[in-house]
Design a protein that fits this description.
Blueprint lengths: L4 H29 L1
Length: about 35
């Protein structure tokens, strides 16, 4: 089974978005901690 490039792009964009969201949340928590 070979996935289409569009599906791969959707998965990559979702993973990148989730990672950026986690990093932003960590930065907000760190700023409040300081």
């Amino acid at each position: 089974m070979v996935k289409t490039s569009s599906d791969d792009i959707c998965v990559i964009s979702r993973t990148q978005f989730s990672i950026l969201a986690v990093i932003r949340l960590n930065n907000i928590v760190a700023s409040f901690g300081m």
